[in-house]
Structure formats: structure tokens, C-alpha cells
From TrEMBL:
Organism: Methylorubrum extorquens DSM 13060
InterPro entries from the UniProt entry: RXYLT1_C
Stretch list, region Disordered: 369-394
Name by which UniProt lists this protein: RXYLT1 C-terminal domain-containing protein
UniProt cross-references to Pfam families, sorted A to Z: RXYLT1_C (PF24785)
RXYLT1 C-terminal domain boundaries: 255-296
Length: 394
């Protein structure tokens, strides 16, 4: 049976050979890297300085203005021509102007408004599908993205709550509470658009693991508490585990990227508790470098979650963490090697950037050819959308 990923690779739902034509907006290409021949990427940074080096771009002021005008005109022409079937764009999210003067806040707000208007213009009409990616740290959708949620076909949320109605709390229609929303067709239509997402990792980050018996440490953890209760508790437990005889590597100083990667590679297990949001680059980095991740409780819906005891372990903060970690660290080397291989396979299959891009396109194609309309969806349409494959909550 053809899978959604196969469909994204080979045949579009409208009969086009290969993946559909795609227009991607944003600061970093995701879908573009997976489908380079079929995707047009519009870099919306439009900055005076080089993004990586922050060095001012060369050329006189008139020349730089001319280059900027050409880039803006090119973006406008691409949106006007509408030579694509799917638009993929990042959400707007918070303004992130804390500490700046009000004029800066106002300017950033206007930039976000202009970006949202541009994306919605590019996705105008019933033919073009719109997929929005939300990679913010928040369980809820920011109110500035309410228009995206209403107009898009699918909304991919990185921190999608285990109960998706919690994610929708800030963007429900005026006067609607979560209890009422579950019976309201318009609210159900919003709920049917939600899909889980993740930060992901580069495919090149996956490294061949060394055998567990040859690793130098039993447990590695590097990180600051930053007022996060679980991290504070774990930091206090590690010295007691070392006193029990476990090889604990928990440096208090900041490691270089090379030393950090080496410490993960040489450790049987690595603690990877969530920060502001639960989903974290370190989860995928630990697995990619050949160690077994240990997480705190996962409050999210995942695309395909790490399973407890198969690709990693989860710690319940209500339990005795010292005792729980002591038990986990007793896993034999053969078990560690099996979990390492399973975790790497999961990351390669689901959480590389390429896999995430194909997942976005496959889920969008799975909607079928039904056009997006401005009128409220019928109950049949809502039921059909709600019936799509939903990710496991295990």
C-alpha cells in the first residue's frame, strides 16, 4: 500500500508527476531541501547584514537599496504568478521585543503583520493549499497567528499539547470556551487542522555509535536549572548517584560543541529534560550521537514519540528520581545497544529535517483535492478531516 511519504515522493494528489509545486517562506528552508526541484524558497529576512557573520553587505547605499528592491519585487512576482500548489510558511508568533523601546516593538509588529498578509495573499483562492509551521516554545498558539489558523489547511505545532484543546485556548472564536468548543463545528474544524511537529535535526548529525561496553560514562548531563523545577531536582540527585559508584559526567562549566558531542558519544545514557518547551534539539542530538536519552514527562502529542524502554526512558517527577535513575542505569550493555539503535532509527525515520519536510507535504496531500472555502465547513467535511490518521499519544 502506498504510504503518505511515498505519495509525497512520487505522485501529487492533483495528478502532477512527482511532488506538487511548492512555495516556501521563511528564514530557513525546510521543504526546499527535501524537494529542491519542485520548491521555490522566498527568503524573507531582507537584512542589510549577512545573517551568519553580521558583517554589513558590500556596496554603496544606492546599490544595496537596489538589491533590496529587486528581492522584494521578486517575492511579489512569485506570489502574484501563483505557479505553485502548496504554500509552506512559518507562523508569526510573539513579537519578542522585550527590553526594546516601543517604536521597535511597533516596527516588529508591523513586520509580522506584513509577513502574514504576504503569505495569505500567496495562498489566496481555493486551489492553493496553505501549511503553517509553528516552532515556538509555547503550548498555545499565539493570538497573532489566529488568522493563519483560520485560513490555513493544516497547522503544524511543535509544542502541541496532549489535549489539543489546550493549544487552541488562546485562538478560539470570541466567546467560546474549551467546553463549548468540542460541540461547535467551527471549533472542530480548527481542531482538525492541528498536526504535531518537532525541531528535528540534520541527517548528517547521525553517527555510528560505539558499543556500550566501551563508553566512559554511565550518565552525562550538562545544563543550568534556570528556575526549572525538574532540572533543579536532577542536579541535586547526580552527586548521590556518583556516591553509589555510577560514572557521572556533569560538568559545571560550559563545554565546547566538540566536547559536548564527545561526552554524549562516550555516555551510555544522557539526561535531556525539557526547557521552556519540552521538545528540544538535544533529544535528537543525543540519539543521533549514539546515546540513550532520558526525558522528563512528555506533556505533548508527538509525530511518533520515543517509547519508554525502547528508544529512551521517561522520568516521573512525582517519583524518587534517585531511585528511578539508579534502576535505569542498571540496564545491561546489550539493552543499551538495542535502545541506541532503535533511537537512531526513529530519528532517521521521523525527525531529520528531510523526514519532517516529507511529513508536512504528505499530510497536506492527504487532504485530497477538496478546495478550501471561506464558508463554515459542513459537518461531513469536519468529520472527514477529523478522521485522518492521528499520531499516537503513547
Amino acid at each position: 500500500m502506498e504510504t503518505l511519504i511515498d505519495r509525497a515522493r512520487h505522485v501529487a494528489s492533483d495528478g502532477l508527476p512527482g511532488p506538487p509545486r511548492i512555495l516556501e517562506f521563511g528564514l530557513m528552508p525546510l521543504v526546499t531541501a527535501a524537494f529542491p526541484e519542485r520548491t521555490t524558497f522566498l527568503d524573507t529576512r531582507l537584512r542589510w547584514a549577512d545573517v551568519r557573520t553580521r558583517a554589513p553587505r558590500s556596496g554603496s547605499l544606492p546599490l544595496r537599496l537596489l538589491k533590496l528592491a529587486r528581492r522584494v519585487a521578486g517575492i511579489g512576482r512569485a506570489c502574484l504568478a501563483q505557479d505553485y500548489d502548496i504554500v509552506v510558511a512559518r507562523c508569526v508568533g510573539p513579537v519578542n521585543s522585550a527590553g526594546h523601546a516601543y517604536p521597535v516593538h511597533a516596527a516588529l509588529s508591523l513586520i509580522g503583520l506584513a509577513f502574514r498578509g504576504l503569505v495569505l495573499f500567496a495562498a489566496r483562492g481555493p486551489r492553493v493549499r496553505l501549511a503553517v509551521l509553528d516552532v515556538t516554545d509555547h503550548l498555545t498558539i499565539h493570538p497573532r497567528d489566529r488568522a493563519f489558523l483560520r485560513r490555513c489547511d493544516l497547522f503544524f505545532k511543535r509544542e502541541l499539547a496532549a489535549n489539543p484543546w489546550n493549544t487552541l485556548e488562546t485562538v478560539l472564536p470570541r466567546g467560546a470556551c474549551a467546553g463549548h468548543a468540542r460541540q461547535d463545528p467551527a471549533c472542530l474544524a480548527l481542531r482538525a487542522k492541528l498536526r504535531p511537529f518537532a525541531l528535528g535535526i540534520e541527517a548528517t548529525a547521525l553517527k555510528t555509535p560505539i558499543p556500550a561496553s566501551a563508553r566512559s560514562y554511565d550518565l552525562f548531563y550538562a545544563g543550568s536549572a534556570q528556575g526549572i523545577a525538574f532540572r533543579e531536582t536532577v542536579s541535586g540527585v547526580l552527586p548521590r548517584l556518583a556516591a553509589r559508584g555510577w560514572r557521572i559526567h556533569a560538568p559545571t562549566h560550559r563545554l565546547s560543541p566538540e566536547a559536548f558531542a564527545e561526552a554524549i558519544t562516550r555516555s551510555r545514557f544522557c539526561l535531556s529534560p525539557g526547557g521552556v518547551g519540552w521538545d528540544c534539539y538535544r533529544h535528537y542530538e543525543v540519539a543521533s550521537l549514539g546515546s540513550v536519552p532520558i526525558f522528563d514527562t512528555r506533556p505533548l502529542t508527538g509525530i511518533e514519540p520515543f517509547l519508554h524502554g525502547r528508544e529512551g526512558f521517561y522520568l516521573d517527577p512525582q517519583e524518587d528520581l534517585e531511585r528511578a535513575l539508579d534502576q535505569l542505569l542498571r540496564t545491561d550493555d546489550a539493552g543499551v545497544d538495542r535502545m541506541t539503535a532503535a533511537a537512531q532509527a526513529l530519528v532517521e525515520r521521523v525527525y531529520t529535517f528531510d523526514a519532517l519536510a516529507r511529513y508536512v507535504i504528505a499530510e497536506t496531500l492527504a487532504l485530497g483535492p477538496s478546495p478550501r472555502t471561506a464558508s463554515p465547513p459542513s459537518e461531513a467535511l469536519v468529520a472527514a478531516k477529523a478522521g485522518h490518521r492521528q499520531p499516537s499519544l503513547n
